[in-house]
Design brief:
Four copies of one chain form a homotetramer. Chain A is α+β, with helices and mostly antiparallel strands. Chain A has one domain: Chorismate synthase, AroC fold (4-Layer Sandwich), CATH 3.60.150.10. Helix content of chain A is about 25%, strand content about 20%. Chain A is built from seven helices and 18 strands. In chain A, the strands form six sheets. Chain A has a five-stranded antiparallel β-sheet, with helices on one face. In chain A, strands 9-8-10-16-11 form a five-stranded antiparallel β-sheet. Chain A has a two-stranded antiparallel sheet with strand order 5-6. In chain A, a hairpin with a 5-residue loop joins β17 and β18. In chain A, α1 crosses α3, α3 packs across α7 and α5 packs antiparallel against α7. Chain A is globular and about 65 Å long. Chains in contact: A-B, A-C, A-D, B-C, B-D, C-D. The interface between A and B is large, with 108 and 108 residues.
Chain lengths: ~350, ~350, ~350, ~350
């Protein structure tokens, strides 16, 4: 069965290709009586479209959202919320050369293998454009989390090897890299410029945090909260690794170092990243995602065509140098969707 | 809704606590006409019970499995396969002291927070004992994968900082650490002895590989194969991070380094770890999991009791020094279950 | 969890209210490479909109469908198919009087009880308008069934007590009641005129048949094919009963009468209605649905308002006298969706 | 995907064949802190085993249930509840003659068609024995419903054409037919004796009622409460039709007759059967099921064998004359499971 639905109770189904009429999401299971209007959603979408920045793709997406159902007189009704974001500024002719050639690092080869045909224009369903629907749905989840005073953050921890040294969350959205360390931004800019000049691309790390999450969320043994968060974040195209709390560093720690002592009212440390035995423990949830470099690069690469013959390719068109920072609001959305879903799942358990 | 079911088509529901009558699994959706008998399952279970080794828990589990349904005259019938593994050698009195105290690093606190009560004996449902049911179900999945010539491997890559330098897969199961580098075993033993003497515990890394996986498995956009594998492996208690292919290292690579060039018949490298855009590409699937040190340690730790009052605790009883190597067959089982499920899901798509 | 998704593999999520911007469906899990264009869908929708007939609601719905995704160069791609049908000709002011009064026989009271608010305009999500999305999705299923030579029929068996005596399937869509007995149509017209004059409404029976269904579809023990068909059809607003094969008549038959003898190549009779032990047996599947009279009647009725105070109501507006014949293509769609889903589910089992 | 799981939140997976080691159920999603012990379950199972009656199958099932997990110190823990009922008194040799012959009216032919093999002993998974697991799970649901003061009833409305004329619910379980009209029992006995002498079998009608169900349960548009109840009851082997409230009679009623006027505090009538637009309205839920005659009859019948050759068969062995009354506690269980699930689903919506 196909996999375009996320969540069990707060359930989102997305659809849409990068060069079709649009992308969208149907949110089913959103509780009734929450305030919702297009502006709340478009504010989140705007962060996914950093067109004002020098370092982002020049493609300008006018991300207007139309709420087609599920909202009446400004409030959710408990019925499915259908969100439509029209695609604009799509130039399909740019992609005609890709009809018969597979781009390395992209889903071209695997979509062809799986479905026996593919929409080759800009990656179709595998394009980053798909994540606009996630961000729109995540904005709905935000309304629910706000009501429960649960706050979710996401930011760039590292870009092309340049790492944030401080975390000034108040200035997160002020800089073009969504980086909590304004001091690291100049180095990030230099790194991007350098790599851009070589026709290459960069990866990095994104960190997400959940504050105010009540203890008790997570469904052992398979739908543990950390397992669900890992799947949520790993389902984003460019992510190749996910870790919770101490994460991979835990592999070299001793038990006496890693265990978080319990103290009255909480925990003395947070190596667990806010999740114990797959259930939130009330502490801050901390998650990091490894983001691979964008596969569309200007440098010539070796590949094959539909008939399996060797070809070379240099990807042209409007491409970012890194999935960062545009992936930051996507990771934010996926974490919000996960927490919203488990919040409602826990209500069902009681 | 509770989370004790794994998979969509090849679907496994597990149950059982460490100190109750037993643990088990119901496998629904296994295709008919596969050979299955208890010995095939018990062979896998034996690897989870390294009682012959000096370094493992002295608790001896006589893991006999009873097939209660779904098999007729030695073949699966397409109806649910119910597997029962009785618990033996359980000494609940050992745990009476834990009724009112939360062990650091365990699920004691979160189970209490979630359910309002808990079976405190040995961790109950959160105990490692639960994974015996996963291994039993994974042995059923193995029968299906064998039929398709899909081979899954898992082994210890690193234990307590001691890393395997070679990968001699033929000798994997010969040594007590399920390590593919026999030369690393003496160092692993030394490391374990050293830490054991200090009343502490160790973590490590486990790697899994899938060979012969056909291209086309994985269900974009949310049930991508890598997302599903991440959830599958992260759902195991001790796992705090998962990466695919180049994984976290990808964050510092350039696009030109990370992209795997396509060549006639396959790929020139495998940074993708066998998965592109969430769909298997026919190359070897490679996954690594970070395993935290076992939280049950003999050293005294700070904690609180049910009433929130400060307490100290030194966990007694029969405990391993590391989840490795016993977690290796569990990770193997979870990967098998995931691949089996997506294999059948892909059949439904066509 | 909310219930706007139908099916497991061929999976449809619908959304939309009668007086919002539109209704729609997302079809996920449709196999790739099927031909699909708006005209194929609009042909089915046209049967749901018998505006050319004297006896149907004068509201004219211009049911144009926009395929927003999942189709590339005329073929399905295996990705979600998003269908949008804009609402037109909606006069919300007609309904202002209903904001505070519950219409008897409608979902007004229960939607208010469930969600704590409701879109009172024309029934919102509970309106018949919702079924346009089902019909559109059913038209997609038809493409799959056509490929497998599975034919689904539905027709009016009885309207207001006037029963079809013959079954001339070739003339089904020729008459305004979708009745296979053209001879019964004049009596149906008389019955409708008579009841309309009294400001009242009528119910009836619809029968559906599936031909060419291979044996083996249906998933014991809970997702038996008859159980799924019963749910599919009962999920349509006006349906109050469903029976398969001999149905309720079976309650008074002897085993020797009811059992269908097996003969080489099939069965000597079909009291089972094509389903044995929840699995299709290769014979024709036969199902009947009881359709209640439309609750919107011009005659004055007793009711209460939001505050629980007694009120009277006479429903005005553009209403049909019976859900028949417009429900016929809806039942057709639901049976198609069910068979398509189980066809793909069976592929996954093998 | 296979269909042995029922429910979304209160979720039951059953397994087991009539002549294997046993049958059982795993209940996942039962809220914690409910009292549960084997005696509560066995009391329900006893009603499914009317061995004390002259008119029931002489096979004696010693239905002892073992709770293998999910209960600690007498209370549910929120973890999966595994229930095991061993089969006893099974004589597989009785069935050897059926290995190659299909019994008319049974699942023999369709199981063979679906799975390519079958456990021919007593029907395997298609046997009535399977329903013991449903009744056991339903007994768990009863604990939840009791806590909410929701009462579910089921009884024989008609057997072999003999209909109950009164409904003395207090005496339901006193008579061998679970009939609320003690006066009808002698006629039922006569009817049974008469048909038994002819080597034939009988069908009938069962009615179920739910009292105290809060308004608001049911998930439009596909998981309406009536749709779910229809599937739940139709998933029982012998059921061929289901109706809610006025049911099939509604097809011949006028809107003015069928609509239930709202009055302060409720409804003036209950043609809706307690469900409006798929959502409970707070009134009594009323449902009727048509039960076909048992297909196993002593009279000789025409059939075919595995090779498709004509054969005759006269089914021997220990068989009831009717699925009634043993089906009554099964229908009771399925209604309980449905209401329990929707009760928890509604909690998740809020």
């Amino acid at each position: 069965m196909a996999g375009n639905t996320f969540g069990q109770v707060f359930r989102v189904t997305t659809w849409g290709e990068s060069h079709g009429p649009g992308v969208g999401a149907v949110v089913d299971g959103c509780p009734p009586r929450l305030p919702l209007n297009p502006a709340l959603i478009e504010a989140e979408l705007a962060r996914r479209r950093p067109g004002v920045q020098a370092h982002a793709s020049p493609r300008r997406e006018e991300d207007r959202v139309e709420i087609l159902s599920g909202v009446f007189e400004g409030l959710t009704t408990g019925t499915p919320i259908s969100l439509l974001i029209r695609n604009r500024d799509v130039k399909s002719e740019d992609y005609e050369a890709l009809r018969e050639v597979f781009r390395p690092g992209h889903g071209d080869f695997t979509y062809q293998a799986k479905y026996g045909l593919r929409d080759h224009r800009g990656g179709g369903r595998a394009a980053a454009r798909e994540t606009a629907a996630r961000v729109a749905a995540g904005a709905v989840a935000k309304q629910l989390l706000d009501q429960e005073n649960i706050q979710v953050l996401a930011y760039t921890l590292e870009l092309g090897g340049v790492r944030a040294q401080t975390r000034d969350e108040a200035r997160l959205w002020d800089n073009p890299f969504y980086c909590p360390d304004p001091g690291a931004v100049p180095d990030m800019i230099s790194r991007v410029e350098e790599v851009k000049a070589r026709g290459d691309s960069l990866g990095g790390l994104v960190e997400a945090r959940v504050r105010g999450c009540p203890p008790g969320l997570g469904e052992p043994v398979f739908d543990k909260l950390d397992a669900a968060l890992a799947a949520a974040v790993m389902s984003i195209g460019a992510v190749k690794g996910v870790e919770i709390g101490a994460g991979f560093a835990a592999a070299r720690m001793l038990g006496s170092e890693h265990n978080d002592p319990l103290i009255p009212g909480g925990f003395a440390s947070n190596n667990a990243g806010g999740i114990l035995a797959g259930i939130s423990n009330g502490d801050e949830i901390v998650l990091r995602a490894a983001v691979k470099p964008i596969p569309s690069i200007a440098r010539e690469q070796q590949t094959v065509d539909l008939a399996g013959r060797p070809r070379t390719i240099a990807v042209r068109g409007r491409h970012d140098i890194s999935a960062i920072p545009r992936i930051v609001p996507v990771i934010l959305a996926m974490v919000r969707l996960t927490i919203a879903d488990f919040l409602l799942r826990q209500r069902a358990n009681q």
